[in-house]
Amino acid sequence: MIVKRVTVGPFEENCYLLAEDAGAAAVIVDPGDEGDRIVAMAAENDRTPAAVWLTHAHLDHIGAVSAVRRAWPGIRVGLHPDDLVVYA
């Protein structure tokens, strides 16, 4: 299992890149800010994320979703339905 972490933004939120093994699809968890650093983290680890998982919709956890989606158009974003009102 691969677990990489980068601390981003003024709130110093932790963003993670998770993957099972070499060549396995990856996910990004809580891309809060600094999308360029998050994209670079995936590239440095030779990963193309298949999804973004948001633990909740606070700004410090969703701030770089647009940047991630620009890097990987069509990437799926998962969020609990109760938080959609905050995210929208």
Sum up the overall morphology in one term. globular
The biggest sheet amounts to:
5 strands, mixed
Rg for CA atoms: 12 Å
What is the N-to-C order of secondary-structure elements (H for helix, E for strand)? EEEHEHHEH
Strand order of the largest sheet: 1-2-3-4-5
Average residue-wise pLDDT: 93
For the secondary structure, the number of strands is 5
Number of helical regions: 4
Give start-end ranges of low-pLDDT stretches: none
Strand content: 25-35%
By secondary-structure content and strand pairing, the structural class works out as: alpha/beta
Helix content: 25-40%
- How far apart the termini lie comes to 33 Å
At a glance:
Helix content is 28%, strand content 30%. The chain has 88 residues and is an alpha/beta fold.
Tell me about this structure:
This protein is of the alpha/beta class and 88 residues long. Helix content is 28%, strand content 30%. The chain contains four helices and five strands; from the N terminus they run βββαβααβα. The chain has a five-stranded mixed beta sheet, with helices on one face. Strand 1 and strand 2 form a beta hairpin. Helix 1 crosses helix 3.
Reconstruct the topology from this structure.
Elements: E1 2-8, E2 13-19, E3 26-29, H1 35-44, E4 49-53, H2 59-62, H3 65-71, E5 76-78, H4 84-87
Parallel strand pairs: 3-4, 4-5
Antiparallel strand pairs: 1-2, 2-3
What are its keywords?
88 residues, alpha/beta, 5-stranded mixed beta sheet, 4 helices, 5 strands
